[in-house]
Design goal:
Elements lengths: L13 E2 L1 H6 L5 E4 L9 H8 L6 E2 L2 H4 L16 H11 L7 E4 L7 H12 L4 E4 L2 H7 L24 H7 L3 H10 L3 E4 L3 H5 L16 E2 L15 H12 L7 E4 L6 H10 L6 E2 L3 H5 L14
Parallel strand pairs: 1-5, 2-3, 2-4, 4-5, 6-7, 6-8, 8-9
Helix pairs in contact: 5-11
């Protein structure tokens, strides 16, 4: 595992609030709080209080490109554009990166996946319990805007072609897999959406044929923290039966909470799964793609 300049190992999945507090002033904190129903909520809430020195990152404007109606609701940004943003934030391989959202990790996991798996940075972790856990622990907060406060002359390391190829699958691969069954698709949406009982966001209800359901919230305990690695491992192995972790592809509504499931697997030592970034919002935009509503389909 890569080491920092002070010879401590980089944290790569989850970090506790107490460990995070010990790294104030050395780690780069990124705040990804967001509400789908109110895109300005995250920045407004950040100004009211955030981890000292943290920079605000917007899900729609920083971690996604413009949706066209056919590429999903949160399509990945161009790699070159995102690398430029990372440079402006001060992201490089020499500093621990700690990412947080309001609490459950569903937005923080998206940025974590983009850094760790899509780009290949080995020094990013998610704050377990997010900002809620930070404030509940009584740790210091700052107010106002801190944009640029932690930025340095950074040298982002571009991803290799191999790293990018292992991170994602595209819609054509998912379509071909319906018959080939080379990988297991895991849907992170709520069970009611997976079954097609309701669809509050996208125009079509249902799921990708052959997918199994693992709502991302099932990765959390009653306190809103990620379950212990051994618990997550047991639950995921039961869901996947004899499937290897490398033969798993995660999806959700728009490629956000899918990353939460991948993070949970990685924290449990089940490495090598991938993400379908377009997810259900891209899949259901193509009328030629089949739709299942029976959980067994």
């Amino acid at each position: 595992m890569t080491q920092t300049s002070d010879e401590t190992e980089f944290l790569q999945t989850l970090v506790t609030v107490d460990t995070a507090r010990q790294r104030l002033g050395r780690a780069l904190f990124l705040d990804v709080r967001h509400q789908l129903s109110d895109p300005d909520w995250g920045k407004n809430t950040y100004r009211e209080g955030h981890v000292p020195g943290a920079l605000f990152v917007h899900l729609d404007r920083d971690l996604a490109s413009e949706p066209t109606g056919r590429n999903g609701r949160h399509p990945l940004p161009a790699r070159e554009d995102f690398l430029a943003r990372l440079a402006a934030w001060g992201v490089d391989e020499r500093r621990q990166i700690i990412i947080y959202d309001q609490g459950d990790g569903k937005f923080a996991a998206r940025l974590w996946w983009m850094l760790r798996k899509w780009l290949g940075f080995g020094n990013a972790a998610v704050l377990n319990g997010g900002y809620a856990a930070w404030t509940q622990a009584g740790h210091a907060v700052a107010t106002g805007d801190a944009v640029g406060a932690m930025a340095t002359a950074a040298t982002p390391v571009p991803a290799t072609a191999d790293e990018a190829g292992r991170a994602i699958v595209v819609m054509a691969e998912v379509r071909a897999n319906i018959n080939a069954r080379r990988f297991q698709v895991v849907d992170a949406r709520a069970a009611s959406r997976f079954r097609g009982d309701v669809e509050p966001v996208d125009p079509v209800a249902g799921h990708i044929p052959g997918a199994v359901n693992r709502p991302f919230a099932d990765n959390l305990d009653d306190n809103g923290l990620f379950k212990r690695p051994e618990v997550l491992r047991r639950e995921w192995l039961q869901l996947l039966a004899d499937r290897d972790a490398a033969a798993v592809v995660h999806q959700c509504g728009s490629g956000v909470t899918a990353c939460h499931n991948l993070l949970a697997m990685e924290h449990a030592g089940l490495t090598g799964s991938r993400v379908y970034p377009g997810s259900w919002s891209e899949w259901c935009s193509d009328p030629e793609n089949p739709v299942a509503v029976d959980p067994g389909e």
